[in-house]
Model the fold of this input.
Amino acid sequence: MKESKVATAIIIEMQYLPPVQIVALLHSHTNIIIDTNESFEKSTWRNRCKIVGANGPILLTVPVEGGRSVKKLSRDVRITYAEPWQRNHWRSIYSAYRRSSYFPFYEDKFRPVYEKRFEFLIDLNLNLLKLCFELLKFEGKICTTENYQESVLATHINDLNKEKNEGLNYPYSQVFENRHGFVKDASIIDLLFNSGPEAKDHLNKLSHNITYPADL
Done:
């Protein structure tokens, strides 16, 4: 591995239960800085994630105030509870993973998050990301740009070669793989519920193949 691949920190937009390859990228850094000052973009991983159910991929979207016309900084985006999205998301997650090998071990960790009412999207996303890091036994520290020290050497996710890195989807066993084949870009919970403790090893291998600016 080239020395240039070792960065002190990475700056990334907030994401709702991010894809496996994104978590692998975060794991390869000691400090994860969530950019709360960027403009919120709809129809992105900022408020949606992908899980895999019996009928194929499912996109779960957290509804926000302002809907598709919202124009705010990420830190100011509020969640709307006009619909029971928490109940719907949890039902979808339960239905998709109740037969997976490790869902029973993690169910009681995730369910309380979906029973808590968060005002801001950033708080929900941070809560879930920190929980995933805890379960994966990651040592990286998570903070936001509001308390980030500019003197820290950081890689911005936008500086990476997205075309190459988005192809980093090493297969692992999925519950409905016999029906749909391997579904890429699934949320980190898909890997957790299917692989359990082995998820960390999978992410380690994935992170070693990330392409950084100095490698282009």
Remarks:
- Confidence is low (pLDDT under 50) at residues 1-6, 161-165.
- The longest helix spans residues 121-136.
- Residues 3-215 form one domain.
- The longest strand covers residues 48-53.
